[in-house]
Design a protein that fits this description.
The chain contains 15 helices and 15 strands. It is of the alpha/beta class and 379 residues long. A seven-stranded parallel β-sheet has the order 5-3-1-6-7-8-9, with helices on both faces. It has a six-stranded parallel β-sheet with strand order 12-11-10-13-14-15, sandwiched between helices. It has a two-stranded parallel ribbon with strand order 2-4. The two termini are 25 Å apart.
């Protein structure tokens, strides 16, 4: 990234602290985002610090940041989260940073990156309001309702609408920056793993790939629809992520097509590469990094409108946004794609071009502009 000497000079004076409670590995989108932010800030000349309760020191110290690990309260509950906040405040008082970037764990910060709509998620998955004693709901409400930030960054318009309405935020306080993915992590040629997981090379494969949270991602609805599709070609159904197939045994047994539940893996590109269609009919997905990654691998995607990533779809690909979770609608969309190879290829090619607009290098420009607007003041 090219920075002007003046800009670099200003940021050489800046000390920035990024706070995130759990950075133990890079499988989560939040951990990858924190690493990208650190790398960006270091490249801008800032002195970067990480404050975390669980952190992979080797991974994050390699970014050039200084890592500060807090003591972890041994018992679960709201107090553990508030205990972390208090330890963070002690660290920040000593560090005296010019800017604090939070990821939903602290109240006072310069920039607050939110990653979940915990109230909306419960309402859509349970059809009930979130209980007032819910641990995540309490902490989430304290962070957002305090408005003790200069800017709150949402990862989709879906999230922005909910938080602005629910917590009476001013529009000018909130900015949408879509998540990015590190394209350099996908430079190696994906392995052909169909044989390894028992899938025929001739079969069409539709899949739901996620980090976990099978209820939120609506795996049951996905299986209900896909298991009964009438296609002439062999069809194989894949669900990949941290979750158990036990709750779906009855559906698997009734399926017209083979169903495979696969574990999370580091080289997730191997899963994307074997798909013909990616599906994410989640009750709610604040963004949905797996959808963006599947798009990068030139896959057509079928997404519920409550998936934030549906907002970035372009052209003909928007025809595959589910306006509601209705089985007949998703079945129709899947059949269109499964029966038309040229359509799959054209929509997949379009999705690849769209995804390239949201690589880490492209999205870093937006975060850079945000940080610059907050730190670079008129004399």
């Amino acid at each position: 990234m090219q920075l002007t000497p003046t800009f670099l000079g200003i940021f050489n004076l800046m000390r920035v602290a990024i706070v995130q409670k759990d950075l133990k590995h890079l499988r989560s989108g939040v951990s990858r985002l924190v690493r990208a932010q650190i790398e960006l800030l270091v490249s801008m000349g800032a002195e970067a610090h990480i404050v975390s309760e669980k952190v992979n020191r080797e991974v994050f110290e390699n970014t050039g940041a200084k890592v500060h690990k807090t003591f972890r309260w041994p018992f679960k509950g709201v107090y553990r989260r508030r205990f972390f906040r208090s330890r963070v405040q002690q660290k920040l008082q000593r560090l005296k940073p010019d800017m604090v970037i939070g990821h939903g764990d602290i109240v006072e910060q310069t920039v607050c990156f939110m990653h979940n709509c915990v109230h909306l998620e419960h309402e859509l998955t349970k059809d009930l309001p979130l209980p007032s004693d819910d641990e995540m709901g309490i902490m989430h409400s304290e962070v957002v309702s305090s408005k003790a930030f200069d800017v709150l960054v949402c990862n989709s318009e879906l999230m922005k609408r909910d938080l602005v309405s629910r917590f009476s935020l001013e529009d000018k306080q909130v900015e949408v920056i879509y998540p990015s993915f590190d394209e350099t992590g996908f430079q190696n040629e994906p392995e052909d793993i169909r044989k390894a997981v028992g899938i025929s090379q001739k079969a069409l494969v539709i899949g739901l790939i996620t980090s976990g949270g099978f209820e939120k991602r609506n795996v049951r609805f996905f299986l209900d629809v896909s298991a009964q599709l009438d296609v002439t070609q062999d069809l194989h159904i894949v669900v990949a992520g941290n979750g158990s197939p036990e709750n779906y045994r009855e559906l698997i047994a009734k399926s017209k097509h083979p169903v495979s539940f696969l574990p999370s893996i580091d080289r997730v590109e191997n899963y994307y590469s074997m798909l013909d269609v990616f599906v994410l009919p989640a009750h709610i997905e604040e963004f949905g990094m797996s959808a963006l990654e599947a798009m990068y691998f030139s896959k057509p995607v079928v997404l519920h409108k409550q998936v934030g990533a549906s907002e970035i779809l372009e052209g003909d690909s928007r025809e595959f946004i589910l306006p509601e979770l209705k089985e007949s609608l998703m079945s129709e969309m899947l059949m269109r794609l499964l029966n038309d190879e040229s359509l799959r290829k054209s929509v997949g090619a379009l999705n690849h071009q769209t995804a390239k607009k949201y690589t880490s290098s492209e999205q870093a420009k937006k975060q850079k502009a945000l940080f610059e607007s907050l730190l670079v003041k008129e004399p």
